[in-house]
Amino acid sequence: MKDIEIRELFRNREEYAGKEIVVRGWVRGNRASNQFGFISLNDGTFFTPLQVVYEASKIDNYEEISKVHLAAGVMVKGVLELTPGAQQPFELKATEVTVEADSLSDYPLQKKRHTMEYLREIAHLRPRSNTFSAVFRVRSIVAYAIHKFFQERDYVYVHAPIITGSDAEGAGEMFRVTTLDLSNPPTNEDGSIDYSQDFFGKETNLTVSGQLEGEAMALAFRNIYTFGPTFRAENSNTARHASEFWMIEPEIAFADLADDMDVAEDMVKYIISYTLEHAPEEMEFFNKFVDKGLLDRLHHIVNSDFERVTYTEAVEILKKADKDFQFPVEWGIDLQTEHERYLTEEVFKKPIFVIDYPKEIKAFYMRLNDDGKTVAACDLLVPGVGEIIGGSQREERLDILEARMDEIGMNRELYDWYVDLRRYGGVKHAGYGLGFERMIMYLTGMSNIRDVVPFPRTPKNAEF
Amino acid sequence: MKDIEIRELFRNREEYAGKEIVVRGWVRGNRASNQFGFISLNDGTFFTPLQVVYEASKIDNYEEISKVHLAAGVMVKGVLELTPGAQQPFELKATEVTVEADSLSDYPLQKKRHTMEYLREIAHLRPRSNTFSAVFRVRSIVAYAIHKFFQERDYVYVHAPIITGSDAEGAGEMFRVTTLDLSNPPTNEDGSIDYSQDFFGKETNLTVSGQLEGEAMALAFRNIYTFGPTFRAENSNTARHASEFWMIEPEIAFADLADDMDVAEDMVKYIISYTLEHAPEEMEFFNKFVDKGLLDRLHHIVNSDFERVTYTEAVEILKKADKDFQFPVEWGIDLQTEHERYLTEEVFKKPIFVIDYPKEIKAFYMRLNDDGKTVAACDLLVPGVGEIIGGSQREERLDILEARMDEIGMNRELYDWYVDLRRYGGVKHAGYGLGFERMIMYLTGMSNIRDVVPFPRTPKNAEF
Fold first, then answer.
1. Which residues on neighbouring strands pair with residue A251, listed in sequence order?
2. E strand intervals along B45-89
3. How far away is chain B from the Cα of A403, in angstroms, using its nearest Cα?
4. ipTM score of the complex?
5. Which of B42, B47, B66 is nearest to B56 (CA)?
6. A220 touches chain B (CB under 8 A)
7. Cβ of B182 and A180 within 8 Å?
8. Has this prediction a pTM greater than 0.95?
9. Do B313 and B259 sit in the same domain of this protein?
10. Same domain as B370, residue B265
């Protein structure tokens, strides 16, 4: 008899009511008296466990089952009985229970509250807890929502390279990728390392962004997006930084900054709506146990028109604010999280795009505005978190781009292919980057990035 | 006036017939007489270009447009006229043509046949050619088909870690990831490198497979899949090996090898059907210009029941074969491509799973069969390519797994978390790996892996 997934029982209960079925799953709870017992059974396909009732008079291994350990894998045959009015909508009256894989009694995930720190140490088992089961299912659903959003709009999904020979000007510290023997690396005559003998014949690193390659693809396909891992070798031990994280980077051609923000706004709303619809049990759980205002906040965002305000206006608002900021505000500074949250939470009370930042604090590829001192950049700030998206219109004018690269001393030769894109039909284009983990934190209310990645990588930590 | 994507024109032509519209795109071809000219316009959203007709009597910059370079980005306003019976189904009669971004005359992608080798050198421009436009759109569609297949079946998408501290027993050579100064690395007293000072406090590498982490997730969620980049630091300069490639690794719990093969077979058929349906123009192109039997072969696969044959039977067949193999066949050898192709192409004439391989030639985690000498592994062989999927039921028995790890001298401490999965509810489970690029090669008929990756990484090559 083929087993039925517990998700299917919850979604189509009427179909199985009164019928004999087989389920398989893991024991999340087990308590028994002399005559009957209850197993809380979870097979991983659904957030809520199935209640199994077994009776001494009905199964011949009652003694064994009443002592079965947490986490054991069992098969249960029985009849599904609807229980209207009870806490759970139905229960399975067992006629047969078989242990398929027992569990040792020292199971590290006993039924009690554990600290998040402890759970990180058992990252291979924590997805079996309520919180992490909910987090990682939502992570999966959000990833799919992102693909669905772009594919339905005929964007081409691009795998940007992970190993790169470029030095990613300004985007952050990089990890080196090498096959050289560190104890005895080949050297040049001047004593420097001879990277021509390395695997790729030159210095290579892990990518910090797929944007530049994305631009090449957008100037062929018009609309593209990347979705892949990116890396930062920064020694930041904060709740919001990981050394390895996933990014989504759409790039659109024949488009300016306003078009770019339209796509970003639509995407954020789409992701939220899709997740609320496809993970209702998990989102309810987060709202109840992780972040009490979560659902209200998300619904509010879906129903808001995102505001657009220039950096210069934002600085004026902050300077006039009756608020003691830790970092003083002056035109030209990089906005800090305290400023961003004040703007989005207290002033506008909804998501805002801040646009047209001073060119000095933004990347070389952002398009210079007519004022000569700001660039067509946009950061999306949302209540409760701050920045989740950073984007820009790209500098498509060959002479201005080259001048800017020289100004900050970039190696033009290394980027000649990128400059080529401006030589041959380099129409206006724009794009943005969304940090996937930031989005998951935002959607779940989880406050530490280590708790939204299955096996997180942070300074001094690459376990599992 | 908002521009309309060329894909939309081709898909819903009736809606636009006789209407004035605006399109934007790049010039793929331009020829003009004294009185009228034709631009072949491609905006990247559709394989087939739009034919634009412009006349000296209708636009005031006829002279300029007639000389516009290949690859220039232009805006065209005009009326769409259906042309039944003509080569193209419609054309756009221009009333206005504006150059939005010109192109230099030395455009490296002139309208002529280029060698694949040359095109690899201009990987930033080659997606603008017919072949690579088709390849990379199909790549995107296949990626989505894979997500859709698993998500519709409620599999949880898992991002396995890219940077790993494990040594991936047996799966191949790895790239080191480090932030140590190679010119002057810290050393221990005995002169060896002191990796405790490296970024993660120990030696780390790029992953060769997400399977072990996938197993942890499957034993929480029942059904999961990974889809991410994996790496091999092997100095293989073949048409089928890349240093960086993407893999899909589903893992299913409460499942054995037969279940595993069922999923693999369904997935392969789903991917093919989805691609044929969603990229008909591209698939037609491949069938015509890249691989003449392609469509027949793919349709045949969708309609076949995949055969299942044991390794032992396969060896018997090969030994009896009236065929001169380069590598002689004996029970215990690893099957070579020549053997695999003979079996799938000449004997069975359809896809076959070869199962139950000698344990010595397979990985430590594969489940030992009752005969004590083979393991529950499966390789899927397909006509025209050979192996595209490798999978197995995993060894879920604690004692047998530990004995096997000791037998081949593995570091048990490093894998203690993996062994834990057998201590706490380690039910039977199985999984497989699909090389994404191999699948794309199979679907497009492209014969070199460098030509199905946007920016390929191979020994001595990490350009762009």
1. A224, A431
2. 50-55, 73-82
3. 19
4. 0.97
5. B66
6. yes
7. yes
8. yes
9. yes
10. yes
